[in-house]
From TrEMBL:
The chain crosses the membrane at residues 66-91, 103-121, 127-146, 189-210, 230-253. It comes from Nocardia vermiculata. Belongs to the binding-protein-dependent transport system permease family. This is ABC transporter permease subunit. It is a multi-pass membrane protein. GO terms for biological process: transmembrane transport.
Length: 279
């Protein structure tokens, strides 16, 4: 069962990623001339969008920018949040931790989507400004999570043992901390990536993100929603790709980073339930 879940999650991630990365190369063969809006297409069975562009060709070219902005945003936010969280957990004085974490608490109180909307309106939909705003919105929860995860590692018995042994090499501390934090932080990265996609899709859906004439997946969903009953694929195809990627990333993180003992116990319990049901 775990193998089946891994294959399902991998497929859910691979399909939108391949479309986003390699899609523009396949879309070059699509017709350049505009066709009838929300009508049949001469290139694919998915029909056309509001501009008369082929829906499949638009989906093939609309994912690269969307995913690139989301990935760069999460990377930048995690670099800042990780630094703050680890520094707060390892602070030798309580006032240093307070100085680092209290501004984070204030930032955590601000509605994340509001930050993104203000940045989008002030910058007239600049992708850079929106990416920075999403990163700022993600820093607070990342710093909080890292501080919580690192506190038990930095102040744990292993670190105390290294100090008692007179260990002075910093890489020994860093190596242990990296191994102890790898699993929870990797799982959290998947959650933050999904959150970044949510904020970016929300901004584009509200018309505050990329150019409304672009083929971006979220823009396509927003721009074609009025013709959902007439040309359903113009909305369903890009929306499905976004959902597949969001669900697939989290499922894949759950399966790859799950505690082996917990996974074995879960599978054993499910097997017992099935046997009792068969009786």
């Amino acid at each position: 069962m775990r193998r089946a879940r891994l294959w399902t999650a991998s497929l859910a991630v691979t399909v939108p990623l391949l479309i986003a990365i390699a899609g523009p190369w396949f879309a070059v063969s699509a017709p350049r001339e505009r066709q009838v809006p929300f009508g049949p297409s001469s290139w694919s069975p998915f029909g056309t969008d509001r501009f008369g562009r082929d829906v499949l060709a638009a989906a093939l070219t609309g994912g690269r920018g969307f995913l690139l902005v989301a990935a760069v945003t999460v990377l930048g936010a995690y670099l800042v949040g990780f630094t703050i969280g680890v520094a707060a957990a390892a602070a030798p004085r309580g006032w240093i931790e307070e100085l680092l974490m209290r501004p984070i608490d204030v930032l955590l109180c601000l509605p994340s989507l509001l930050i993104v909307m203000v940045a989008a309106m002030r910058s007239q939909g600049s992708a850079v400004a929106i990416s920075i705003a999403i990163g700022v919105a993600l820093i607070a929860p990342i710093a909080r999570f890292v501080r919580m995860a690192a506190d038990g590692v930095v102040r744990g018995p292993v670190m105390d043992a290294l100090r008692m042994q007179g260990e002075s090499r910093g890489y020994r501390y860093g190596g242990y901390a990296a191994r102890a934090l790898a699993r929870p932080l990797a799982a959290d990265v998947g959650v933050r990536f999904t959150a970044a996609m949510y904020f970016l899709a929300s901004a584009n859906f509200l018309g505050l993100g990329f150019d409304t004439s672009s083929t971006d997946w979220a823009v396509s969903v927003a721009a074609n929603k009025d013709a959902l009953t007439v040309a359903p694929w113009s909305v369903a195809l890009p929306a499905t790709l976004i959902v597949l990627l969001a669900v697939g990333v989290n499922l894949l993180c759950d399966e790859l980073l799950a505690d082996p003992a917990a996974v074995a116990a879960r599978d054993l319990a499910r097997a017992g339930t099935r046997r009792r049901g068969s009786r």
